[in-house]
Structure formats: C-alpha cells, structure tokens
C-alpha cells in the first residue's frame, strides 16, 4: 500500500531548481525549468520542485498558512495589454524572453527604469548587485537621456497613452547629475507620477536637488530606503551606520513638504523586530504617505540568506500586531486585487478625530470591503447597494485605492479613500470634519498611511502564475524596448536592461 504524502498540495506551478543556480547565473533558455507545487505542512507554505539532477527539494514560501489562505477571493478584473511583440504567442516560459507576450494577464501598473549601475553606497545586500563607490566612471553613461526618453515614449504608447507610475531606479539614480533632466522629460509625458527609488544620501546633502524635488512635489514621490534604527541593521544591509543620514533625509523631505514612502528591506534575525518602529516613524511624519516592506530575497548580493528560514509577508503581517500594540495586524491586510494574490499585501491606516489610527479594512469591515470588490469583479449593475456605494464603485475609487503603489497622486488617493469612508454609516463622524463631503485633500493625505508588503521572487520561490499576472515591469533600452517582470529581470542572466 502506498503511503500518504506528509503534506497537502495547495497549487501546481512551473518553477526552477535553485540548486541549478548555485554554480552561477543562469539564462531563462537553459534546462532549469521544473514541475513544482505549493504545499503546506507545519502551518507553513513551501515551494516544492522535482529536478532530475537534484531530486525533490523544497523552500519556505510563506510563514503563516492561515493568512496565506485568507488571500483567496479578492481578485478584480485585470486590464488588457499591448504585447511588446505582436506575434509573440509563445507559451510560458518562452514567450517571456521577448518581453510581455500576447497572453500576459496584466498591464504595467509600475514601469521601472534602471538608469544607472553606479551607487554611492557599498551595500552587502543589493538585489541589483550595483557597482560600489570608486568604480571608474563611464565615458558615456548608458542609458543616455535620449535612450531613456525613447523607452518611455514607446512603452507609453503600448500602455494606451498613459502610465500611472514611473519608478526611476538603479543602482542609485541620484548619482546621475542629469537626473533632473531625466525626471523633467518624464513629467512632460502623460505620466501620473514619478517615484525616485533612493538611499537618500543626495537628499540629505544637496540643497539644490531638494529644491528641485520641492518644485515638482505634486507629481514626484521619494521611495526612501529605510531599514530600521539599530546600527547593526545598517551595517548588515548597507555596510555602514547610516541611520542619522536617513533620518536627516526624511526630515528634509518632510520640511519641504515632499511626499515620501519608507522602503524597508527586512532580514530574518536582523531587523524583523523593527518593522513596527518604522511604521510608527512614518505615522509621526506628516508628509510620509506610506511604507513599503520588502522581505529580502535571494537575487543579487545577499550574504547569509537562508531560504528555509527567511522572512515572508505573512510572517511580517502576523508579527506586526505585537510590534504595534495591536494597531495593525495580519487581518488588516488584503492581497492587492489587480495582481496575483501572492504579489503584494496592502492596508491603509486612517487617523481619527481623536488622533488614533485605525485600519481601513477594520473601519469599513473586512466582509463589506470584500463585497465591494466582488461587485466590481462580477457585475455591471450596482442596484443592490446604496446610492453612495454605487457612485463610489462607478467612480473607480476602490480600484485606484487598491492598486500597486497607487496609480494616482497622493491627493487623488486621499479623495478616493474619503469616498470609500463616506459609504459607511457613522464613519465620517469617527474620522472627523477633515473627512467631510468636500475634504481638504492635503490634510486628509497627511492622515492617511499606506502599508504594502511585497516579496519579490527568487529561485527558491519562483511561481509562474505570479509572472503571468505581474504588473511591475522593468523596461529595456533598445530600438524596440521590452518589458520584463521585475522578478524575471533579476533572476535570469539574459534579461538585461539592454535587450
């Protein structure tokens, strides 16, 4: 008699074998693809794969089985796309070697452009494996300003003439002296907002650059790297104690009324006990619009990374309850409805008239919020709901609020959240006069705080379904640019920024 498996099969997937990557970088067209499955045992979720060379292996996928299962049932319809190559009907994985194929399931919510390989930090932990300070400067830095503009224009056309979010990244983008020109060219296009993904060093030191950001504050947001408060955290992730510099950069942004998001890389046993403290810092900073929590993953430079004992999103959200005194916990997060359910967990905290903070799902009611999302997903008529809910759903507010990093400005996001709150009897009274029918959006935005938790995939957690519905795309710089899923870009050696 055959013995039962000591685990439950949750999902099937096409994945890769991480042991095949131990000898060095691998290309997506090599013999690395393996049948896999997501399985559960010991109240955790694991990625299991079957390799003819290395046998059956498994890696930790999610720390909390119950919270992972609670992600089911939140999906909304995805947007149609224009593929990067009109004749690319090749199935997975072949089709993704040439950008987004015809059958890709979601458009570009965030277009990420890596504008340099250089950096002014020497971080031991770096998914991009950026060049360290002292690396000889190139005679001509690529991508050039014109190459960047060309990629933006071509991909803008493929997105129907509008891009919600352009993220300028690297390396460290602020080492480019022409970054203001890069940003101004982008702002001249039909792009809702530009995010600058930075370690904050130039912001802490350069008054002229800060003034430039202030000038464009209505369409710019700073994604500020901020890993915690302990010197040991900075030294582990950044190679030096940079906490005072980070705090100075954040304070200068706040004083200049430039919106920022704190971006926290989280490593097990290093700073996973500091997440709640960083949340509180963000809440105490009026022009900090949110926090992006990113568990460290296995691509790039990553000393001491243990795929069997890593930090995962459900582990972080579960531990937040104790770290924030119950302010926010795992039950306050929902999966981002527009992408694959494992790609991003999101919540919003709103400040009430008493000065305390409450999560949006808790204020509205998790079941009611899910009902609204089901109405968006499954009906074209909202006759079964109240007039205020019907108008809110028709306006698209709920779709904009629960999109990847927000496709709209901070003030528009505040307006949309106010619409959601206006649909719940008694909630505007709890929140106070600021959340009235015609709210002061700048003030409302300062009382709104977004938290996302996003685990990018590596060879240990690669799940083909997430690639197929990815909405965070890295653009290439070539005559006919392509878009790669962020996770695909940093896993495979043939997915470069230059084709």
UniProtKB/TrEMBL annotation:
Domain of life: Bacteria
Domain Radical SAM core: residue ranges: 103-331
Keyword Lipid metabolism: no
Keywords tagged on the record: Iron, Iron-sulfur, Metal-binding, S-adenosyl-L-methionine
Cofactor: [4Fe-4S] cluster
Pfam families in the record: Radical_SAM, Zn_ribbon_HMPTM
Example GO molecular function: iron-sulfur cluster binding
Signal peptide (UniProt feature, chain positions): none
Stated name of the protein: Radical SAM core domain-containing protein
